[in-house]
Amino acid sequence: MMTVASNEFEDPPTRDQTYYISDGNTILQVENTLFKVHRSMLIKDKSTFDSMFSLDAYTHNTEDPQMNNTSEGESDENPIRLHGDKAEEFSALMWSLYSLPAELALAMTNQANDLQLIHLARIAHKYQFRSTESWALGALTTYHSNTGGSTSVQNLVQITELSILCDCKALLDAAVTKWKRLLGEGRAVAVAIGVAERLNLRSLLGLAYYSMMLKGREVWDSDPQLNARQRIRLLSGHYNLIRLCEELPSSPPRLTHDHSCVRKGKCKNAFAAFWRLILTTKDGGLVGQVLKLQSADLLAKVMLAESIIRAFAEGNIPNLDLSESGEMHEKCLQIALQAAHDKVKEVQDNLVDLFSDVV
Q1: Quick one: pLDDT at residue 88?
Q2: β-strand partners of 34
Q3: Does residue 350 contact residue 270 with C-beta atoms inside 8 Å?
Q4: Cβ-contact 198, 160 below 8 angstroms
Q5: Minimal CA–CA distance to 286: which of 321, 237, 257, 262?
Q6: What mean pLDDT, rounded, does the chain reach?
Q7: What's the rounded Cα separation, in Å, for the pair 267 and 197?
Q8: Which residues of 191-215 are buried (b: 16+ CB within 10 A; e: fewer)?
Q9: Which residue among 112, 209, 249, 256 is least packed, with the fewest CB closer than 10 Å?
Q10: What's the gap between Cα 338 and its chain centre?
Q11: Mean per-residue pLDDT for 291-302?
Q12: Cα(196)–Cα(208) distance, rounded to whole angstroms?
């Protein structure tokens, strides 16, 4: 027999308004809601229900015929009880099985109900509706990869968890992109820290800690969502970033010469001087913008350095005084630009390592 347990609810269960179908032949109870659907729909896609019903049929056929047994699922009084599921999840599964093509097509647009798709993907994964799970994950990925697809922070948490549960990299990438957008706006930072720690998302975790650090210690200490260990990590990260920012002007990215360059060490020295000029000048204008950044804002500094080198390489800063640094071979300048780009990526990839538990 299938799951049998005493009624967990004080109030009698109520029939679902949409999926208590008059000619259905199987009654299931999820939480305090009754669903009456067609068994043939439940066994689609070789789902777990297929094997469950096969086992139930075998058990029923081998029971003593003298015993008066009423099979589960044949009446409201003896439904098949699905424990651990939510009624809205099962309703989403029924929606996917009974909907018309036009209704399903809507889920691939900006008008999709992302919470319904979350419920669907989760329960489809649990009961091994493989094609349904794949379709729901695809719809969610399409929705959340589109900049027009909006979602609440609570739903974004569920999307991130779901992508890990179902091992869906495309959906995870879309979710992380939305988290980064929120962090850039200074929103839901503590939530992002909690999610990234729980799911071990290193790149997101580093950016989340970094975003919180830039808010300042007064914010860290007053945010109720942060615990003592997380505040220690923020202090550690602040200290490490201050130190790296102090070292940054004298630590240019490694430059390799173009094979056609005959200047040997001159380009390397010129790039080192240019890098130092970008990060230490007290002049105003484009280069001086770096002084407006926070002293620990390492990522912004290397990103600004890259943008200045790019602008210079493209001839958009024609009057920049490089008398201290000297000229660079044109092709070596392009290599320097790539080196600066690699430096930005290196900082982004290693941010999380700067926020250790020890100050």
Answers
A1: 97
A2: 15, 29
A3: no
A4: no
A5: 321
A6: 85
A7: 43
A8: bbbbbbbebebebbbbbbbbbbbbe
A9: 256
A10: 28
A11: 84
A12: 8
Query: Of 1-10, 146-155, 158-167, 292-301, which range is least confident?
Result: 1-10
Which residues are bridge partners to 33 per DSSP?
14, 30
Q: Burial letters for 54-65: b for 16+ Cβ neighbours within 10 Å, e otherwise? A: eebeeeeeeeee
Taking the CA of residue 339 as centre, how many other CA atoms within 13 Å lie in the half-sphere pointing to its CB?
A: 19
Nearest of 278, 275, 274 to residue 323 by alpha carbon = 274
* Token pair recorded at residue 311: 């602008």
> What's the pLDDT tens digit per position in 118-163?
999 999 999 999 999 999 999 999 999 876 667 899 999 999 999 9
Residue with the bigger pLDDT between 192 and 45: it is: 192
Distances (CA, A) of 93 to 30, 42, 49, 53, 99: 12, 9, 13, 18, 10
**Which tokens belong to 36?**
């009456």
Confidence of residue 213 (pLDDT cuts 50, 70, 90): very high
Closest C-alpha among 107, 110, 111 to residue 137: 107
Q: Which one is predicted more confidently, 68 or 113?
A: 113
User: Distance (Å, rounded) from C-alpha 349 to C-alpha 342?
Assistant: 10
Beta strands in the chain (DSSP E): 14-20, 26-30, 33-37, 80-82
CB atoms within 10 A of CB 88: 17
Question: What is the rounded distance in angstroms from the CA atom of residue 189 to the CA atom of residue 175?
Answer: 14
**Would you list the domain boundaries of the chain?**
1-84, 249-354
CA torsion through residues 340, 344, 350, 356, sign? positive
